[in-house]
Amino acid sequence: VIYHSEGWFSYFNTMKACATALLLILSITLQCSCALSPTDCNATGPLAGKALDLINKGRRNGYLFQLLRVADAHLDEVESATVYYLALDVKESDCPVQSRKYWDDCDPALSRSPSEIVIGQCKVIATTHLNESQDLRVNDFNCTTSSVSSALANTKDSPGLFDYFEDTERYRKQADKALEKYKRKNDDFAFFRVDRVERVHIRVIKILWS
Q1: Which of 140, 142, 159, 176 can pair with 125 through a Cys bridge, CB separation 3.0 to 4.6 Å?
Q2: Segment 103-129, tens digit of pLDDT
């Protein structure tokens, strides 16, 4: 599935055109080419979270995207403006976009089986201006998603697949429940608790009907 800004963020189109014109004018005036500079992905995490929130608010149907990680980040600085080019690995939550929640306020989509989880990547162009009250604007975005079952067949469809399963903390509740069940059958472990989840193994079984 592909989501993009056309039709969703129509009010950003004018801003995009203005930003393009501004960059073109400055390029002609300064007689230099604009080279993108790589920037630290972890440092852009808060900005990426805000950008994803704006993307979610501009969508009309489906479920909120949640940020898995910033896969790539570059920037271009033009006087008082900074243009960010981001690649965000995302997953689909259980919260519909109509809820208008912030993506991080949604519980993980643990109600779905692993093969039903939807993950993907959003490529985003966002701008910050030092002299404006609204410090972040999303100029354009394109999100491509697929289910885990599709990604298992072709991992290129969902670059965030393995990062999602490596994030073991989202499975802490299941680990707590499993330990509690085990403790009820084994009194010797009554005072044990889950400190952290080290590793998660998930197996997807395909059933073929004849």
Answers
A1: 140
A2: 999 876 666 666 678 888 999 999 998
Q: What angle do CA 27, 51, 142 make, to 5 degrees?
A: 75
The most confident of the ranges 7-16, 62-71, 126-135 is: 62-71
Task: Give one word for 136, left, alpha or beta, with left for phi > 0 and alpha for psi -120 to 50.
Answer: beta
All domains of the chain in start order, with CATH = 2-164 (3.10.450.10), 168-210 (no CATH)
Output the pTM of the full model: 0.59
Dist CA 91 CA 78 (whole Å): 32
Structure tokens at 147: 């289910």
| DSSP bridge partners of 142 | 4, 123
**Block residue for tokens 């005036």:** 29
